[in-house]
Each structure stands twice: as C-alpha cells, then as structure tokens.
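Support reply, case 0932

Customer input (verbatim):
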Amino acid sequence: MTDYINRFRPSQAEIDRRYDNVRKAMAEHGLDALVVSGSEYTGFEGAVRYLTGFLILHRYAYVVITPDRDPIVVFPKEATWVGDHSATFLQQRELPLHCGEWIADYLRGCSARKVGIYGLEYIINVRDYSAIAKGDFEIVDFDIPFDYARAQKSEEEIASVRHSMAINKQGVLDVIRAYEPGKTEAELMGVAEQTFAAMGCARSTMDMVQVGENGSLRPQMVFPSNRPLQASDGLMYGLEIAGEGGHWTEFSRPLMPAGMDAITSDMMQAQQEFHELVRENMRAGRTAEEVHKVCMQPFVERGYRSGHVCGHSIGMTMIEMPRIGEGFDFVLPENMVCSMHPHVMNEERTHSLYFQETYRVTASGGEPLSGVPIKAYDGSETAF
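Our regenerated output:
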C-alpha cells in the first residue's frame, strides 16, 4: 500500500533541486528566512505540497525555510488528525496552537530580520500574518520570486503533468460521450467529476461551464445548473484538475451539437490561429510579454475583447507567475508549463469563446500537452 501511495513522491534529487532553487532566490533577495503558505482554497495548496509532499485536506499549513537550517512544516494543532502528516517528506513538523505566533518565535530565535512571505497577496491566514507582522521583521512579498524559482519543471514534474492531462482529457471526453439533449448542465458535470474522483484527483478540481443559445456562448463562466439542455445550446466545460502527483492542467473543448453561429465560428477561427501561434512562438528564450503580444494578434485584428489574461505559468499551484501578458519580462525556460486560455468576447458582450490548453515550453515552440485539435465537438464523438 505504501509503495502505491508514494508512486508520485519526488526523488531526493528532485527535493534537493526544489530547495536549492528556492534558497538561490532567497539569497538573490537577501532574505534571512522564507515563510511559504498554503490553503485548502482550491488550487492554492500547491506551494506547501511542492515543498513537503503533503496535500492539505482541510485548513492551511506553512513551510519555514532558512539558508542553513532544515526546513520545517507547520500545521495548526486542530488539524493534527486531518490528513496523514507522515506523508510529508520533511522530518521536522510542528503542530502549535497558533501557527503565526510559533513562526514569529522561531524567526526571532534565528535572528531573522528580512523575511519573505509566499502567499502574502491571497493565501496566508490573517491571524497568522498579524502575529508575524508584530515581530518587527522586514516583511517582503515573495509571491513572484518563489514562482519564478519553480517555473522550470523537472522531468519528474513533466511526467506528473502528463498524468494529470491524461485524466483531464478523459473527463472532457466522458462529458462529450454522455451528452444528450434533455440532460442537465449539472448532470454532465457530474460525469466529469466522477471520472476525476475515480482517477485519484481528490478535491483537486476546479470546474465551470459556459453556456449559450443557438450555437453560441455567453461570456460568463458559471456553476452548472439543473437546467435541461436544448439541442441548439452551446456548451464549454472548463475543467482544471491535478492528478495524484499534484500538478495542475487545464483543458477544454466546446460542445456545439447543432454547430456554431457566424460570430462564434469567426471566434473559433481566431482561436485556432492563436493556438498555432503559441505552438510557433512559446519557445525558450522569449519573454512572457513577447509571447502574449504575438499570440493575441488574431483577436486584436478582429476587434475582440479579452476577458482576462491569455495564460499563465501553472504547476502544483493552479495559477503561478508569470502571467503570459503585458508587463512580464520573465524569460521562458525550457520545460516551463503554461496554461493558455484566451477568453474573448465581442464588443456587445453577447458572444464569447474560451479555450484551455496546457503547453510545455521547448526550444522550438509550445508543445500542446493534450494533443487534441483546436475544434468544436457535436456529442457524437467516442474518441479524440
């Protein structure tokens, strides 16, 4: 049983690689210590999992790293029996009554002055941050430097990413196979969730749907409802999951049983051009901003609006930096993994088309990890 549970446990060489990269980033920014936070909030548990191997079942956790001491994982005492803490590959584990107070005391004992925090913008528990902030440390937002330090994936990580993509593809295909007019939006989503649960994703799923009438999609991404589907409805199940190895992937394809209307068909052409440009231009050595500007041209030329950023780095946290967008001069390394998901709409906000594909950065361009064509499906398909 232990061998099966640990089949995605990183090797010691991989663990050392992760900590070496993080400590290098700490040194570049003159940190005396780094506090890495993770939360049960879907997709934001990944930094702790990356550094410990522990998947947070409930509540939150921290990893405290200094330049010359063994790292420590800190769990809240009330979560002593919530999750199997022996699953972590760190030997030093603490379960204090108040994590923030314990961390502040530990940092004082290390004579730390400049302390970085990963998760400062979104993740860290307010009670714990307040206790650390009272410690008279110089606190540095370390969200971006930490993500940059883990942007390049190892071969072990790439294997985990491919495993997650195989599960994600299966969920989307199962939705297409299960489609029938009269079924509900939620019923079809349940098919995907059953696949993901059966294949070991646990709660590491973040799923939504876009719907529309007469072969179109509205811009809003929503929870699926119990509304019966009409044969002319357009559907886009946006499925984001992490498999047993903990690496997130994003994959979706539109379901258009009666075909697409004229505006959506034009958006589809633009999406196909976008993803072709990603394959050509998402190569090592280019910056995130350069890739964004080149690849978004098919939408710009047609006058479509962007609902949000066209892509981002992705790993054991669902959304990692850099964004593939303006203002990010980060140079893409080989084996970085990016989710590319342009969410475009017309000026009137009546039509939209959203696509998700996960890419690996290579020396020659972006490798689409699904291998599935950029096209719409009609519900008659039994395979990609």
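We compared this against your earlier run and they match. Two observations from our side: The mean pLDDT is 95. The radius of gyration is 22 Å. Please reopen the case if you see a mismatch on your end.
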